[in-house]
Fold:
Amino acid sequence: AWLLLCLPHAALAAPWLRSEGVATSSQGAVLYREVHWRREAAEGAERWVLYQCPDGQPFARKHLPASARPQARGYSLEDRRSGQKAEVEAAGDSVSISWREDGTSPQRQGQLALPADTVIDAGFDAAVRLHWPALLRGERITLPFLVPARQRYFPVQVRRTGPVRWQGIDAQAIEVSLDTWYGGIAPRLALVYATADRRLLEFRGTSNLRDARGSYPQVTVRFRSPPAERPASDWQQAWAQPLLERCVVTPR
Structure:
């Protein structure tokens, strides 16, 4: 609620951008939806993400502050269903991490140096666009990726695998993989971006949310429509909804 009070009147009066991704299992079942809000189209604009059960009730939320380094911005995450909480603050040349795996785990805190090319969480999306010309030339980009639960960086490699046709849209397939294998960390993500506007169309890989069994499921998230303008009152109403504690987002 305090976020609503902190926003200036002009920000609430201007239209906001809303997009929605639908996460499905390998069998095609809808696991959850993620609704993204931002105040403007700029890459580093402040963002909010609301995670919803298939019936539309929210169970988790994430806030990403505005940043001049969108591929390495901090974030806060709360999943009421599992009790998972994260506070990652990137400032200057360091990043502070506060992480709780679930409702029964202790809070772990730490601080790390912040390399210039660091990628944090959804910063992968910004990193792909930042390195777009190099990727289309066939170059492989290696970046340090922060894993808050481990409080360390893992080297990942980003490369374009080729052009594709995605639901009638000309697109580019992008692969993100670890330079070396580390146990317990997903080795590969498959992404699809629209060629015309570099918009993320599909994510295929490990979810950042724990399922009802306490594991991180493999999901496919598809963003079928580009961001659409909506009144700020719609965001206010969505963000003010209480989070559910018993939302099953994957089949048992």
User: Anything to note?
Assistant: The first helix runs from residue 2 to 6. Residues 37 and 51 are 12 Å apart (CA to CA).
